[in-house]
Design brief:
Number of strands: 2
Number of helices: 12
Radius of gyration: 23 Å
Strand content: under 5%
CATH class: Mainly Alpha
CATH architecture: Orthogonal Bundle
């Protein structure tokens, strides 16, 4: 009896996709069920409230939502120039050789360092440096805050965006580049008009992956963001994120409503990440269609 390898492979892919979808639905409905008490108690005030006080049973998520988005997108904006430069350098100018090996090893090492190590480095090395700068510019010398957490996150997500962008740039057809060179284009023009447009969708996919990594980061951000449960009023003010709030208070939550509110924060983080990824996939699909 002959076995069709293609059919077996398709069945395996469909089964894997269904399992992932089922797990995703289980996670969503588990969070929804465990947060039902907080949902009924808080209502829409949960999304607009700015007070988080378990003693008075007041739970507002707006400061943590703002802290998560500000920190993640600020880190992403900081990350883009570095990751884009590294991907162009490694994907076009130094594809082989000792320098390429050293840079590849460095990027892999940055991606493999545990987040707690980034947090310790940020707390004992980077926070005092930021505090000194704040004192020179007459800014309240917190040291910790959104800016500090964003810089640490920037270092953490650079390898993800740079690695994917580099691989996509490596896949740009050689024929296209050689045709441009034969027409008299310089290397900079080839990079600008051939490589970047052709690889733009893959570069954006790497940026999307880096953003997802930044949204869910916990330990490193917890150690340097200040853990202040108020709405931030500046880029240098201490704040808090949804993941950090859960890490700080989940073990100490003794009231059922407090625990349910923390699960609701987790549900909100889940939904925010899903919405951002869906929007990113739509943009990526549109970019791929235009590229064709």
């Amino acid at each position: 009896m002959k076995v069709n390898v293609d059919n077996v492979f398709k069945f395996f892919l469909k089964s894997s996709s269904m399992i992932i979808l089922i797990v995703l639905m289980i996670i969503f409905f588990t969070l929804l069920w465990d947060s039902k008490d907080a949902i009924m108690h808080n209502g829409l005030r949960f999304f607009t409230g700015t007070t988080w006080d378990p003693v008075r049973d007041e739970y507002g998520s707006l400061p943590f939502l703002a802290g998560t988005l500000f920190t993640s997108f600020t880190a992403l904006l900081m990350c883009l120039p570095f990751s884009f430069s590294i991907s162009i350098l490694m994907g076009e100018y130094f594809r082989h050789g000792y320098f390429s090996s050293i840079m590849n090893t460095t990027i892999e090492l940055l991606a493999g360092i545990p987040s707690i190590v980034y947090g310790f480095w940020g707390l004992f090395v980077f926070v005092p440096f930021i505090r000194e700068l704040q004192m020179k510019f007459n800014i309240l010398p917190y040291g910790v805050g959104i800016f500090t957490a964003s810089v640490i996150l920037c270092f953490m997500i650079i390898p993800y965006a740079a690695s994917i962008a580099r691989e996509v740039i490596n896949m740009v057809p050689t024929d296209l580049k050689e045709a441009a060179y034969s027409l008299g284009a310089t290397r900079l023009e080839v990079v600008r008009f051939i490589i970047i447009p052709h690889a733009m969708s893959g570069i954006f996919a790497g940026v999307l992956l880096a953003l997802g990594r930044a949204l869910g980061e916990t330990m490193a951000v917890t150690m340097v963001i200040g853990n202040n449960n108020v709405l931030p009023d500046s880029l240098f003010a201490p704040s808090n994120t949804m993941a950090s709030l859960i890490a700080n208070e989940f073990a100490e939550a003794v009231q059922s409503l407090h625990l349910s509110a923390l699960v609701q924060i987790g549900l909100l983080l889940f939904l925010v990440t899903m919405i951002i990824n869906i929007i990113g996939k739509m943009v990526l699909k549109k970019m791929s269609f235009q590229g064709c």
